[in-house]
Specification:
Length: about 450
């Protein structure tokens, strides 16, 4: 099998995501429930695109506006206003795909374990066999309530998918089941769908009926057996969502460890699907890495670190701290108990110590902010020291202002910098000062009253 996503040309993907998913017991559509840092539906979309789909059409229904606004304009949408079965859902896309001249992948939106590699295998077999339909199947020890795959005993082509409740005792012994993932010739697919009827207790149009009809008409119906039986697992409840999260999290941990990352305690470590971690980095217990996060090599992350949507360089240490939507340079030490709110750019070999908070701050290389400081809407030059208890007063009640601190400056302990204000290169501020005016380069800024001692005051009191 080729590694190229373009091994089969002109692929369209049709993702079914219109159901009400009442068993989730949620005001949020099932398709948008988060799974390892992204909406559940994203897994199917990304797998299809990675397998070479040039077009992706999503069938939406329940709370369609929310689904479309969340996923954005990168996809085509068709509406299934009434949920009348999987066959009916596919029919909604006929107008969009009736002239498509390549294979159409059809898959559910709640199948996060289906990989791009597996879809490529399905598409290549479908193309090689010039099939009207090719099913992705799995073999289970206990097929339970899944639909059984019935094959011709001589040709081994699929002749039907029989629901468990309709199966004969002999058919119930079949372990091969359908996964609801298919590759179709679109013209033959839509022609078959126009011929099926809702002759069942639910009064719905089943996509599986189209499979049986194509086989009866002499069309080639093939199947590819997945080596991983877990791919049949979908999401109907929050319990199932949690179970799939555990499976995916274990796969992520395994892949990272095989790539050279140490995860000290996987049971207390959460790493989202889009997190990247470099070689020889160690992830300590009680760490959460989420969103689109990129961590370099030789880092020490945790214990107790929470990092989301951020980029960290090499040899970075983060202990018992939060970092959100920020960049941190090589060799920087963060924590314990630091809080980097969104919008920070931190240089190399910076020290951000305990109970230091940053927000929309830029810190150049070799800056030290060791203790109990707040730097918001601030710019700090290289090699500057920020004394303990320093704060930038960036908000005047109406709008935010910036504080500029130059290179090689020394901001004394408990300095209050009232923005907008600039501290020049090499300047100092005296400890305990409230600085409301610019301090020139190499100057000392003092903003406090002169000390006066009252002799005998305590005794008189």
């Amino acid at each position: 099998m080729s590694d190229s996503p373009s091994a089969v040309a002109n692929v369209a993907a049709l993702i079914l995501a219109a159901g009400k998913s009442t068993r989730m017991k949620s005001k949020t559509p099932k398709a948008l429930h988060p799974l390892l840092g992204k909406p559940l539906l994203r897994f199917a979309l990304e797998a299809a695109q990675a397998a070479g789909a040039q077009r992706t059409v999503i069938v939406v229904g329940h709370q369609s506006d929310m689904v479309m606004s969340t996923l954005g304009d990168d996809f085509e949408y068709v509406l299934q206003a009434e949920q009348k079965g999987t066959g009916h859902a596919v029919q909604m896309a006929e107008k969009s795909l009736e002239d498509w001249d390549g294979p159409v992948l059809v898959m559910p939106g709640d199948a996060p374990l289906v990989s791009a590699r597996l879809l490529e295998s399905l598409l290549e077999h479908h193309s090689k066999m010039q099939a009207a339909a090719t099913l992705l199947t799995a073999v289970l020890d206990d097929a339970g309530a899944y639909g059984r795959i019935v094959r011709d005993p001589i040709t081994h082509q699929v002749t039907a998918i029989v629901e468990a409740k309709d199966a004969t005792p002999e058919q119930l012994t079949i372990g091969e089941i359908g996964t609801s993932v298919y590759a179709f010739d679109p013209r033959k697919l839509f022609s078959a769908l126009r011929q099926i009827s809702p002759n069942n207790a639910q009064g719905e149009y089943y996509l599986t009926d189209a499979i049986a009809l194509l086989a009866q008409q002499g069309e080639v119906v093939e199947a590819v057996i997945s080596p991983d039986p877990d791919i049949v697992r979908g999401v109907n409840t929050r319990v199932e969502l949690m179970e799939l999260s555990s499976i995916l999290r274990e796969r992520i941990h395994r892949a990272l460890q095989l790539s050279g990352v140490t995860i000290v305690d996987p049971l207390t470590t959460h790493i989202d699907a889009d997190v990247k971690i470099g070689q020889d980095t160690t992830i300590h217990p009680f760490t959460i890495l989420s969103g689109v996060t990129d961590i370099g090599e030789d880092c020490e992350i945790g214990p107790g670190a929470r990092i989301s949507d951020s980029k960290l360089g090499n040899n970075v240490s983060v202990r018992d701290s939060y970092i959100v939507a920020s960049e941190v340079g090589d060799g920087t030490r963060v924590g314990p108990y630091a809080n980097l709110r969104p919008g920070n750019v931190v240089g190399k070999n910076v020290k951000i110590g305990d109970f230091v908070e940053l927000k929309q701050a830029t810190l150049a290389d070799d800056v030290s902010a060791g203790h109990f400081a707040y730097l918001g809407d601030a710019e700090v030059g290289a090699r500057t020291n920020i004394g303990a208890g320093t704060i930038t007063c960036n908000y005047d009640g109406k709008k935010k202002h910036r504080t500029i601190i130059g290179a090689d400056a020394f901001v004394g302990t408990h300095s209050t910098l009232v923005a907008p204000v600039t501290i020049g290169d090499g300047a100092y501020t005296a400890a305990g000062s409230t600085i409301t005016e610019d301090v020139p380069a190499q100057a000392l800024g003092i903003g406090r009253g002169r000390q006066v001692n009252k002799e005998g005051w305590a005794a008189e009191k």
